[in-house]
User: What shape does this take?
Amino acid sequence: MDSLTLPSMKNDMNPSHLDVAAFAKAQARLEGDTPLLQFERLSEDCLGELTGNVTWAAQGATQPTVSGKDEVWLHLEAHAQVPLTCQRCLTPVPVALEITQDFRFVADEETAMAEDDESDEDLLVMTDALDLMALIEDELLMALPLVPMHQACLSEQAPTSEEEKSILAEAKPNPFAVLASLKTGKH
Ligand SMILES: [Zn+2]
Assistant: This one.
């Protein structure tokens, strides 16, 4: 017997056709290791042979509101190591992608647009057939670095042209990330 699947909710637990409301109400969890190769859009951005997995987990939850109607939430985590093309030496550079994202499901696109600015979480329109794998892939694609580069390539090479200068400028760690790493003592 598949330990992920409760007999009464077999149809709700399909990660490519997820009944979000039922999943959240049951506070259900899905997790897996899915070969990178199955993420076609992500694969297109990778260089060479793809052998790794995307390790992911999705947790459903509901939250009561003053109106008495429960909000539907989904917490998503995923990580993967993908071989991207170093923008300096044009050989593969392994880049770790990490995603932690909360989603709240709302009735329609209008509500999502209206409430999006004031919400930390991402808003999605309620569905009974969520393609969880596509959502994970969307998030991984958004996590891709603009200018992937080996650490050595980044530090050793001095920019020689205006174009390269601008590439290197974009590749510099952002000051907030540096500050955060100082605060946590990771030098
Ligand atoms: Zn390189």
Observations:
- Residues 36 and 53 are 5 Å apart (CA to CA).
- Residues 132-143 form the longest helix (12 residues).
